[in-house]
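#structure-requests
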Amino acid sequence: MATPQQQIWATGDFAMVGTAIVIVGELLCDSVPVHAGDRVLDVATGSGNTALAAARRGCQTTGIDFVPALLDRARERAAAERLKIEFREGDANFIPYGDESFDVVLSTFGSMFADPARSAVEMLRVCRSGGKIAMANWTPGGYIGEMFRLTALFAPPPPDTQPPVLWGVPDVVRQRLGNNVTEIRFVERKLAMRHYSPESQLEFMKSYFGPTIRAFQAAGERAPELAAAQLDLTRRYNKSGDETLLMYADYIEAIAVKA
């Protein structure tokens, strides 16, 4: 039986959303940096953005996700580029590989949505000593952090759930990885997000982004109120200077060396 998180991310089609964040995986692979021949795992790979980036750099790449339809899209993309990548169904909380199986463990806006304690343990477990764990995580500040807080007003998370964006706070990342890493560094980045207009961006998210779809479903009769609040937020961050949309969403790269 699918977990609530699986149901959320299987709603809509995150592969469509993923086309706008391809650059994040490319930058993360360069920040690590990965090397040709590295055994790389991309956790919560979605439609394969970061796994593809690693494979383009000559890595022996594996990607896991718990949404089979997204893995199908990832396999299509790898085949189109003639890249050899193993895509396998798997949960960030229970990675289906043995201890120290990988030189580099990556996750782009993926593991941050899993159980924080379990996912941290699992990423550390499957990474070899001296290997690297690297995550791209949304921050509490900025557009995405505000968007998640807004949708939580209409679709509250389960009690005692920690906000995923805490993975975007350096002190929290240090605490969660603890003495299991010998060093950790952070890179602050901004992702440019573009669309035809704030209104078209909202309709796009309502069609393809699982958390947004579920929030509107949960809002029920208050859905127009959620839509108005979302548009107000988007317009406030819009930097285009015309009727189109250009926003910059804050995220951090956290790159750690396993002890």
